[in-house]
Amino acid sequence: MRSSIAILALSLLSLVSTAPAPITKRALSANDTLVLQLALYLEHLETSLYTDGCDSFTDAQYNAANFPPGFRENVCVIASQEAIHAATITAILEENGIPPVPTCIYQFPYDSPTSFVDLANMITSVGIGAYLGGATLLMDDPTLLTSASAILTNEARHDSYLRDGLSASPFPSPFDTALSAVFAYNLAQQFIVSCPTPLPIIILPKLNFTSPAVTPHLTPILAGTDLDFVWDPAEFFIDLEGNTPVYVALINGVGLPVFALAGKASDGKGSVPVPSGAGNVAFAVLTTFPGGLDGNGLTNYGTLAGPAEVVLS
Question: Partners of 246 in the beta sheet?
Answer without folding.
Answer: 263
